[in-house]
Amino acid sequence: MTIKKTTINDLEAFIEDSTKAHNIPLSKEDINRINQISQEAEIEESSDDMEIPFVAKDNNDSLEQTHP
Amino acid sequence: MGTVVRFSEFDSYLFNLKNKGERVEGTILDANIIITLSFSPKKFHTRVSEFIRNKILANNMNLYSTVNTTQEFLEFHRRLLLTEGLRTAIHPSSRIKLPNKKRSVIRAQSSILDAREKNNGSDPVFYDREIKKIRDVFCHSGPIGMKLWKTLCDIYLRKQLQLEYKALQKLNVNYLSSYKTEMEDLFHQNITWESAIDICTDVGVGFSDAMILNALQSTHLPFSISLDMDIADAVRGKSSLKDVVMPDELVDKL
Q1: Mutation target among B172, B173, B183, B219 for the A interface, most CBs of A within 10 A
Q2: Which candidate, B122, B97, B125, B120, places its Cα nearest to that of B110?
Q3: Which residues of B touch A18 (CB under 8 A)?
Q4: Which of A17, A65, A34 is nearest to B171 (CA)?
């Protein structure tokens, strides 16, 4: 192995390629893929909201008593 | 004694080094220099890229860094890509329709980031803790929430980070190791944790900075280039450390 030498072209290529890497546009397929799973996740979210929390019946009830 | 050298003073600084017979075959780049080169909206991008092009590469100097640099570079781009992807996904013009709770948490964290950008001129990049808050809402909502998060990561990160890594390789940075045969001539002592701890404990600088300063001390290279005020403070606070070269605007703040 030898010591690598950076040229001005290498520097330009690095800047250009790095910029390209974070400017890749999303494809239609990517968007559809996200939206399909999002629809399922929305249902999952809604069902979480519908879960009935434990409510004490009176002052003597406690979580310890009902869930030993 | 180490000094903090301004970009604008570099020509005379280099002239003096050469006159004193110093070896100026290369320099150590802090990770923030490489990150700034790679992201054009970043403050100092133009100044740093012109400096590296016109003052370092034009003077036939090689680029060196520590092995931590790749990790720091990829970590910055991970946060940047996720920030851009998630913020774009909740933009009113986006065709992506995320579930309500997921949109809300992204919007909340994005508002915090907006304020930070506006008030402090911060980079448009979520902190890791902000990404964790968003990820928790996805991953703790059930298996489909987890699947959605993984899909977003796949779409926003997988190809992009591989390309960022390939781009970094094009910069031809040499990763410093006193155990590489081709670098034997560059070192006058091994890089050790003991000496890094010594630098850290002397000025309280973080270990990624201490490793840059420590690597520099172990080689014949006369200076590093950084955008980190901590490195400048360390150089000013510990007389045995070597020089750091920085943009004028940062040196003015010292």
Answers
A1: B172
A2: B125
A3: 37-39, 77, 164, 167-168
A4: A17
Q: What ipTM goes with this model?
A: 0.91
B-chain CB neighbours of A2 within 8 Å are: 182
* CB-based contact A22 B84, cutoff 8 Å: yes
| Cβ distance of B164 and A21 shorter than 8 Å | yes
* pLDDT digit string, tens, across residues A2-52: 999 999 999 999 999 999 998 999 999 999 999 999 999 988 878 766 555
Does the beta carbon of A32 lie under 8 angstroms from any beta carbon of chain B?
no
- Determine the residue of chain B that is closest to A8 in CA distance: B53
Domain positions in chain B: 4-67+176-252, 72-168
Q: In this complex, is the C-beta atom of A50 within 8 Å of any C-beta atom belonging to chain B?
A: no
Region for B92 from its dihedrals, namely left if φ exceeds 0, alpha if ψ lies in -120 to 50, beta otherwise: alpha
User: pLDDT of B65-124, one tens digit each?
Assistant: 998 899 999 999 999 999 999 999 999 999 999 999 999 999 999 999 999 999 998 999
The pTM (predicted TM-score) of the whole model is 0.89
B183 to A3: CB separation less than 8 angstroms, yes or no: yes
Q: CA-CA distances (angstroms) from residue B105 to B90, B98, B100? A: 10, 11, 9
Give contacts of A8 with chain B, Cβ < 8 Å. 53, 57-58
More confident residue, B6 or A56: B6
Q: Does B54 reach chain A within 8 Å, measured CB to CB? A: no
With tokens 């075959």, the residue in question is: B25
